[in-house]
Design the sequence.
């Protein structure tokens, strides 16, 4: 099995090397790629049935997304792990914040370049209504290096015992690991990032082993994290990429269920117009773009309603400076994933409780690591605050005095990780309660 996949990969790669004009240039440049196909092959080998399961989840998400069509803004808590070996890999906070901003722009259609989309695709470009909230930055210095191979990805970065950084609860937060991803040996390829797609782990079909929830999330090369990252110049020579923070946009797209726009019918997305991305409003595309902006690219010449390739799409490999859009169909899938298989990400960030829409209690951030901000709106006038653990045991009680002001802070750094319930009572004995996760 391993051998046959390796042979298959090698034959596809050699096909790319021979037929791809960019790759056959004299200075033997590298292929840049995301690790999606390697991930799918690796998981299918370890857990036969994995691809089918992902397809099922995709179908489910599509149905859910079509059905709901609400306008709620979904907020995803994000934990960023900076796993660094050389000092330059220990990215400054500003780059991390910048990357979260790029995600928030791209997923809310607030990106400054949104109007660069060609007129033919304008009507399909939309606001995903998904936002990202940075709740924690974990920094781990390591002596380990992270090298993908032909059919494996460097998931050691997600494990403290292997020189990486253990995930924070992946059911409640998007974990993003940032590290130096080494070149793929013998392949002449640099993986810029990869993601685990939603696979609906608790409902795995009989006979199929579940993958590990502690590995769920996204990995991004440190040179591609953030917009205008000056470290982009450290990418291997021959890789003419100017990262605009959209490696992460692309990988989060995978994490929320999207496939490459040209379809994932074959390893490395070999040219094919029969395998598509399962999304109706993205044009059929035969192969990936080559980090370029070819506006007349048309890889599938179809008899009926032929369209140009949508190189503006985040799920292509076009130049990141040309990308500016998710389509309505892609957005329905991502929102369906958030309402279905990844609904844990939303479960706790509706951290508001209200009475008669008059009084409201908000907490922030959630999940929380160190200090929890409590804010109440309206004339609620809290007289007592209690925190219970998931077993109903009282963990903390605070009486009236500290509540003169509208903002209260609880120091939770020493608390055990887990689910807690905060209950606030006012002078009329009305109660509000919200759940939060301590990580
Ligand atoms: Ca399509
Ligand atoms: Ca295709
Ligand atoms: Ca076409
Ligand atoms: Zn990809």
Sequence:
């Amino acid at each position: 099995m391993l051998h046959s996949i390796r042979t298959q990969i090698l034959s596809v790669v050699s096909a790319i090397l021979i037929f791809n004009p960019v790759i056959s240039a004299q200075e033997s440049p590298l292929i840049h790629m995301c690790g999606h196909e390697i991930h799918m092959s690796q998981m299918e080998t370890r857990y036969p049935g994995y691809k089918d399961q992902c397809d099922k989840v995709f179908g489910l998400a599509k149905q859910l997304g079509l059905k709901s069509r609400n306008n709620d803004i979904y907020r995803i808590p994000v934990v960023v792990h900076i796993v660094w070996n050389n000092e330059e890999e220990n990215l400054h906070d500003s780059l991390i914040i910048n990357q979260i901003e790029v995600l928030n722009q791209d997923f809310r259609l607030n990106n400054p370049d949104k109007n660069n989309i060609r007129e033919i695709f304008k009507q399909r470009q939309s606001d995903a209504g998904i936002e990202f909230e940075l709740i924690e930055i974990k920094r781990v210095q390591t002596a380990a290096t992270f090298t993908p191979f032909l059919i494996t990805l460097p998931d050691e970065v997600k494990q403290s015992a292997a020189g990486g950084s253990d995930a924070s609860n992946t059911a409640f937060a998007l974990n993003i690991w940032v590290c130096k991803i080494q070149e793929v040996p013998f392949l002449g390829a640099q993986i810029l990032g990869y993601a685990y797609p939603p696979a609906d782990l608790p409902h795995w079909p009989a006979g199929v082993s579940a993958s590990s929830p502690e590995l769920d999330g996204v990995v991004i090369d440190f040179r591609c994290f953030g917009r205008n990252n000056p470290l982009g110049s450290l990418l291997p020579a021959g890789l003419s990429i100017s990262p605009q923070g959209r490696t992460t946009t692309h990988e989060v797209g995978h994490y929320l269920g999207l496939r490459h726009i040209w379809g994932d019918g074959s390893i490395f997305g070999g040219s094919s117009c029969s395998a598509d991305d399962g999304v109706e409003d993205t044009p059929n595309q035969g192969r990936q773009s080559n980090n370029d902006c070819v506006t007349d690219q048309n890889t599938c010449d179809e008899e009926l309603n032929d369209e140009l390739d949508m190189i503006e799409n985040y799920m292509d490999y076009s130049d990141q400076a040309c990308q500016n859009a998710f389509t309505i169909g892609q957005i329905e899938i991502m929102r369906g994933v958030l309402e279905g298989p990844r609904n844990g990400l939303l479960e706790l960030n509706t951290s508001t409780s209200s009475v008669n829409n008059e009084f409201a209690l908000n907490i922030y951030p959630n999940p929380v690591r160190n200090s929890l901000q409590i804010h109440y709106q309206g004339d609620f006038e809290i007289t007592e605050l209690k925190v219970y653990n998931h077993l109903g045991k009282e963990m903390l009680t605070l009486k009236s005095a500290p509540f003169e002001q509208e903002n209260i802070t609880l120091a939770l750094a020493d608390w055990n990780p887990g689910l807690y319930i905060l209950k606030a009572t006012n002078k009329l004995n009305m109660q509000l309660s919200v759940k939060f996760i301590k990580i």
